[in-house]
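Re: the pair you flagged

First of the two:
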Amino acid sequence: MERSKYGYVVCADIRYLPELVGNLNSLSMIGNEEDILVFGRDIPAEVQSQFGDLNYRVIYREVTDEEFAEGKHLSDILCRKRYWYAAKYAIDYDAVCILDADMIWSHLPTAFFEIAAKTGLAVGPCKEQNKIYSDEHHRWHGEWIIPEGFYNYHDLCNSPLFIDPRVWEAALTKQWEIFLDGQPDDNFKAPDMDAMNICMLEQHGIDRILPLPSLMFLGVNEQLLKPYIRAVQKEDGLWTQSGIKIYSIHGHFGHANWRGIQLGNRKGCIEGQLNGSESAYRQAQSSLDTMVRAFYDALEKGPIDIELKNYRHPESPAELYEGIESVIPL
């Protein structure tokens, strides 16, 4: 099979197997034809053997023990190094989408690949709170990569990030190098999102970064749980109630604790801003329920089939979904 025009880059280990499978299945279920490069750790052979059942090509590469030893934690490889992987292994694609494993796709994001490929812009969802780079962990070898106190009003979440890897190769590579170089005292210690944003600002400047509304791609934290912009299921996928297309959703939808945190946070806002409106809280429950069901539809009805169990804590039973109201009552 020939290389596609665009490609996705994602990293995952066995702990995120349900999320990865839901992600891959959801892309297949909406008709994706672009390659996806999966950099994995301990992904079972019986899962890898089902990659061929998808309607697009999966290029799988196992993260080696030597690579694992580079980072302090596995998350360093699976989060920070994915951008480096894009520069090294996806350089020939016209544009790539770098994403987290725990995403479910509802609509094809072809237009955003095209924007990145034709304009050279880095395109992604905006953050809810933009960063001011003033923390000591933003230094590298004691120096600021960009000026101290810089306010990044084009701060991206970095997942999904649509980008031409040839245009942004230096930034994609450097964000990993500044984490390695100088360990353990003088390396860059801030999160991977900060590293990627800072390196993009350094390479091409803020005007080459295009932030998009996050509710189109992420949206759970205090956005898609709100009245009027809550998530609803239509025949062709997820939309906001107000008519905005939701291309993807992002979160640990299969974990009750995470779901409870989302609703708990929303409940606090409703009490503080909407006089404790019972209707607003019920709408938040309904919206999260819609997104959780989208996750389970992708996980259970897609081409790749896995055993439903607790992959993060194998000693514990599988978390079964019994409806949002079982998580945190009003």
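Second of the two:
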Amino acid sequence: MWNALPPDLIALFNKNRTIQMVFAYLALVYTIDLYNPSASKSVIGSFLYSALLFLWFILTSKLHLKPNLAIMIFIFIGFLFYKHKSLKKDALSELEKKKESYFFQQEILRRQIKRITHIQHFCFFVVVMITLIGNVYYMKEHFHQYYNKDKGPLDFILKYLFYGSKKYYPTKT
């Protein structure tokens, strides 16, 4: 795909990390709007939703292997419960369409859907907590290694989030 782009544009992407970030963010906005139009009803909503996901992406890209694997597992579990919940919702809507009274079956399905929703919320909470705790731990490591080489805390945080340590703090060979 990259070979189809002009060489000057490829060189710009390779040299400029800010351009890479802007391009990745805009690709995320486009992808969310294309594949999940219900996620954002307005242009501003689409950009804000994408900004949250992009921030989460940046934070998870700064984690060690084990927290990333744990996050992937909990996202997968949440996805499985999402699919299970959608099947329960379909069954509930089918029961509601029938003219006979299936009150008890409907009530059982509603309770199951509610329990599944609680499990999904728990998975989401665990993913957010792993991301935050993992970032604090990882940032603390880098802070002790690299902070004295920066101009101040904001400079360190921006470099930590958007550039990575290898570009600004090369390792000794």
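The radius of gyration is 22 Å.

-B.
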